[in-house]
Amino acid sequence: xxxxxxxxxxxxxxxxxxxxxxxxxxxxxxxxxxxxxxxxxxxxxxxxxxxxxxxxxxxxxxxxxxxxxxxxxxxxxxxxxxxxxxxxxxxxxxxxxxxxxxxxxxxxxxxxxxxxxxxxxxxxxxxxxxxxxxxxxxxxxxxxxxxxxxxxxxxxxxxxxxxxxxxx
Length: 168
Description:
The chain contains 4 helices and no strands.
C-alpha cells in the first residue's frame, strides 16, 4: 500500500484498496446438506425464534405494566387536583357564609328593624288612641275533670262470659 501513495495517478477514479482481512465464505452454502443436519438447523431456528418471541413478549408486558402504573398515577393526580379545588371552593363559601352571618346579626338591631318598618312598609308607632288595655283576672282557667274515667282490662271471651253469668 505504501507503494501506491508515492505514485502519481492520472485517472479520475481513485484506486481501490485491498481490505486488510479476507471475507470467509461458508463452504456449506452451495452444497445440499443432509436431512439430519437440516432438522438440527430447523430445531435451532425454532429455539431462537421462540427465545426472540419470549423476549418481545416480556418487553410488551413490561410496557403494559409501566403504562398501567403511569395511568393510575395520572388518575390519582387528577383526583388530588379535584379535591384541592373543592377545598378551595369550600373555604370561599365558608368565608362568604361567615360574612353573611355577621351582616345578618348587624341588621337584626332593633333600630334597623324599626327604620325598615317605617321606610319599606310604611308602618308607624301606635298612638294613645290605638292602644287598648285588657285586664284579666288572676284565676286559673283549668278545670278538673268532672267525670271519672274507667279503664277496662282486656280479657278473653271465657272470662267475659263468666262475668256476664254471675253479674259482675
